[in-house]
Amino acid sequence: MNTFTEKLYGHHSQLFTVDVELHRGRTPFQEVFIFENRLFGRVLVLDDIVQMTDRDNHIYHEMIAHVPLMAHGSATRVLIVGGGDGGTLREVLKHPVQRVVMVELDEDVIELSKRYFPEVSDGAFDDPRVSLIIGNGAEYVRHNKEKFDIVIIDSTDPIGVGEQLFTSEFYEGCRRILQLGGIIGLQSGAPFYNPGQLTAICSRLNRSFASVRPFLAPVPTYAGGMLALVVAGDTHKSLRPPIKILRERFGRVQRRTTYYTPEVHRAAFTLAPAFSTEPAPSAKNVGQCLSTSDLR
């Protein structure tokens, strides 16, 4: 039996059976491996780290896209950094946005995703509202003068090519190109295995944004099954609006989601992304991410 073992975290790994190998090669930036697994369907691996699968990618893509967009409520211009598989782009386009700029470093990932995961992007790259830029996202943010309502960082982990998208300088650049009331959203890994990463990301975001809030998404593909995401903006309440407002806004996307709902939006912030056996940390000990208001 052929297998693939992901060894992202020390002292723990996860194993997938490789029932059919579909692609193995190298782009100018990273190694790519695509295979079929009987449980998860097709699996995309970059530099030996699982990025997404057929079966559960919708949970990640819906949560990283709809949480900031629904929290904002009236976004018309969105920037996506990364996201070469097109899943986040697909979800963003379910909203009545006018313009979406997507900056992806690795064009080969886009083409391979279109070929092996066509349902993930579902034609999103052909939408006339989309401007696709092949290039460095950090450089784009540094030099761009266009303003956006939402910035979504759909990146790999802070290893190798993705590391530059997790710096204080990059987050400050994102704040600069956001309109008043704008929101940034990003993934921050599995907090059970790497709690320091979430703390560091929140701390860096706090230097540029008044409110920083982590939330959880259950994605079985990722080790531990719980992925921490973070949104940041002007106020805590703006990131987690009342359920009545979220339900009203949900009608605008015609309820075209599989996992995300207004109720899930609210609940995701009450699940503390901390798995220590120690007493619950204070807000200051978690990069000032958490607040007692998260429990209301």
Number of helices: 10
Taking pLDDT < 50 over at least 5 consecutive residues as the criterion, the unreliable ranges are 281-288, 291-296
CATH architecture of the largest domain: 3-Layer(aba) Sandwich
Q: What distance lies between the first and last C-alpha atoms, to the nearest angstrom? A: 50 Å
**What integer is the average pLDDT?**
91
3D shape:
globular
The helix-strand sequence is EEEEEEHEHEHHEHEHEHEEHHH
Structural class label: alpha/beta
The total strand number stands at 13
How many domains, in number, for the residues?
2
Radius of gyration, CA atoms, in whole angstroms: 18 Å
CATH class of the largest domain: Alpha Beta
| Major sheet | 7 strands, mixed
What's the helical proportion of residues?
25-40%
- The fraction of residues assigned to DSSP E strands is 25-35%
Assign the CATH superfamily of the largest domain.
Vaccinia Virus protein VP39
Strand order of the largest sheet: 9-8-7-10-11-13-12
Structural account:
The termini are far apart. This protein has 2 domains: 3-53, Spermidine synthase, tetramerisation domain (Spermidine Synthase, Chain: A, domain 2, Roll); 57-295, Vaccinia Virus protein VP39 (Rossmann fold). The chain is built from 10 helices and 13 strands. The chain has a 7-stranded mixed β-sheet with strand order 9-8-7-10-11-13-12, with helices on both faces. The protein has helices at residues 57-72, 87-92, 107-116, 118-121, 137-143, 168-176, 195-206, 236-239, 243-250, 262-268, and strands at 3-9, 12-17, 20-26, 31-37, 41-46, 49-53, 77-82, 99-104, 130-134, 148-154, 178-187, 211-218, 226-233.
